[in-house]
Model the fold of this input.
Amino acid sequence: MNAGNVGAPAITPDVPVTGMLMNSNGAQLHRLDASAGDTMSISASVDAGMVATWRLFNTEGVLISSGVADGNASSVAFSASGPYLLAIDGAMSNGQNVNYSLSVTLDNHTDFLIAPGGALQHTMHAADRLAVNEIK
Done:
């Protein structure tokens, strides 16, 4: 699985996403772009009395973090730049469709500093931001 090739809608840090898990144990995928060195907090919640979990996969499809959709945030440090997949899954015991809310907060973003006369080689990704503070 390549997270960049999956047609999942993008989730933007600091912009909550809501949706519905169909058939009680349904799943929804969201793409999350991150830069190496970023730290983000991920939280999910569902309707009262319902059960769901979230899982975060790296670009190779390896599970790197997960949690219960109970509204509590979990901090995740990203070791590589690129697209990640954030999945939320309902439980069979729900017995009905489940409304969910996902929230991702960017806690820390790593800046790259270039010394005068220095050079930096870095591949830009969707989550990267380029800010030029001063050029002389």
About this structure: Strands lie at 17-21, 27-34, 39-46, 52-57, 63-68, 74-77, 82-90, 98-108. The chain has a mean pLDDT of 84. The radius of gyration is 17 Å.
